[in-house]
Design goal:
This protein has 17 helices and no strands. The two termini are 33 Å apart. The protein has one domain. By secondary structure, it is mainly α. The radius of gyration is 22 Å and the shape is globular. Helix content is 79%, strand content 0%. It holds the Pfam family Polysacc_synt_3.
Length: 447
């Protein structure tokens, strides 16, 4: 009875504490943004063709896969540092950010040519290169975003997400009505980066930067502290890349096996069915990592370990997402044709919509597992898990594509239902006997 009482008390702490507040701000921003985006989605779904959706799917998939390893290239390390380390590492982190941004820009620009040749569509080149320029804007806000995350200012982080999404939706709908075609989706995604930068920098000065040790030559491109940040960031980034590849491998393979028009139908069904739930899952992951890395008072007898925080947060997120996703799937036959138009039903999008929506029931488990493994110093296991799951999904999609888009959606659903709960159970059975929840240690990358 005492252990049960302790569990209920700690769960109540999770529900009322930093994680719940962080998820509230991030999740509400995602939901409000998605509501605004719904109007934009209705407009572009009625004005743009499946072929244009297919082109957009290719561009945004490439952008996401290249952007993902750079997104936390420095912030994952900065969040785990103490105040002194942070002041000594800001300049080094800025170098790492610029190196990652320039590399990403070059990579996506070069990738546009072979993709255009492969799909026999030279119209992909210019939108891809223009989309790549947004990478060069990110370093102007990355350090400021890391500081907000480190201090658990999820209200500010949520505000940045909300205003980005709102302006993206408004501009996309407006440009689509003006007849800009594919540019109606690409241009807003570059413009709203300035909004993200402005929100994170507003009234958020960086801490005083302390000089690097005198023994380090100032002319070095990457001094020792930059290399440490880069090493840790690459480990986190590769894990995130495996997640992004897992989340986007379906676009790549559907386009390869079934063609660009089928990819357009799939892209529409995926974003319409999983847009809100994936937004909540991503918000949960962002809030969870900062929550797991928070350092409490060492004398507090109620101080939770990383494992306790992780497993109690799972119950919290599942209680939140299960009813939302279940209701969405149940009502899909009623609102999909009314909201998005009959042409998507004629294209066979409804069963794909429902199957993909149901896969969202267990997706929070995968996001939570990744953040837990990174925060507890097991980034290699995170990379192995996501890499293995990506391989399973790739094989499943390749085989199920023989039965068309519905076969692919069913294969994705079954893969998620099998792998994610199984890995969560594995983590439960193999959790360390002893551990510390204090991630801001003297060696941040050994936490």
């Amino acid at each position: 009875m005492q252990s049960e009482s302790t569990y209920q008390s700690s769960l109540s702490t999770v529900l009322n504490g930093a994680l719940a507040k962080g998820l509230f701000w991030l999740g509400s921003a995602q939901v409000l943004g998605r509501i605004v985006r719904l109007g934009s989605s209705i407009i572009i779904a009625r004005l743009l063709t499946p072929e244009i959706f297919g082109q957009v799917a290719i561009i945004l998939t490439c952008f996401e896969l290249i952007c993902t390893p750079t997104r936390r290239i420095s912030s994952a390390a900065l969040i785990k540092m103490d105040d002194s380390q942070l002041k000594h590492s800001l300049s080094a982190a800025n170098r790492v950010n610029w190196l990652a941004a320039i590399t990403a820009f070059v990579a996506m620009s070069l990738l546009s040519w072979p993709l255009a040749i492969y799909y026999d569509d030279l119209q992909l080149i210019l939108p891809m290169i223009l989309m790549a320029t947004s990478y060069l804007l990110l370093p102007f806000g990355m350090l400021y975003a890391a500081i907000n995350l480190r201090l658990n200012r999820m209200r500010v982080v949520g505000r940045a997400v909300l205003w980005q999404t709102v302006f993206d939706a408004i501009l996309t709908g407006s440009f689509a009505l003006l007849g800009l075609g594919i540019w109606a989706i690409i241009l807003p995604k570059i413009i709203v980066v300035f909004i993200w930068i402005g929100v994170h920098r507003y009234h958020n000065p960086l801490p005083e930067t302390l000089a690097s040790p005198a023994s380090e030559p100032r002319w070095q491109l990457l001094p020792a502290n930059s290399k440490a940040i880069l090493k840790f960031g690459l480990q986190v980034g590769l894990g995130d890349l495996a997640i992004a590849l897992r989340q986007n491998i379906d676009y790549i393979l559907v386009g390869y096996f079934l063609g660009i028009e089928a990819l357009g139908v799939y892209f529409f069904a995926f974003n319409a069915s999983l847009g809100i739930s994936l937004g909540l899952v991503q918000s949960y992951g962002t809030a969870l990592y900062s929550y797991l890395c928070q350092k409490g008072k060492e004398t507090d007898p109620k101080q939770l370990t990383v494992e306790q925080k992780y497993f109690q947060s799972l119950k919290f997120i599942m209680l939140l997402t299960l009813p939302i996703i279940s209701l969405q799937a149940l009502l899909a036959p009623l609102y999909v044709p009314w909201v998005y138009g009959q042409k998507w039903l004629d294209a066979g999008a409804l069963p794909i919509f429902i199957l993909l929506c149901l896969s969202g029931l267990v997706r929070p488990l995968g996001e939570a597992a990744s953040q837990y493994l990174i925060s507890s110093g097991r980034g290699q296991l995170n990379l192995l898990y996501n890499g293995a799951f990506t391989a399973i999904l790739a094989v499943t999609i390749a085989l199920s594509s023989l039965w068309g888009l519905q076969g692919v959606a069913l294969g994705i659903l079954l893969s998620h239902l099998l792998v994610m709960p199984s890995f969560t159970l594995y983590l439960k059975l193999t959790q360390p006997i002893t551990n510390t929840s204090h991630c801001r240690s003297e060696a941040f990358y050994d936490c």
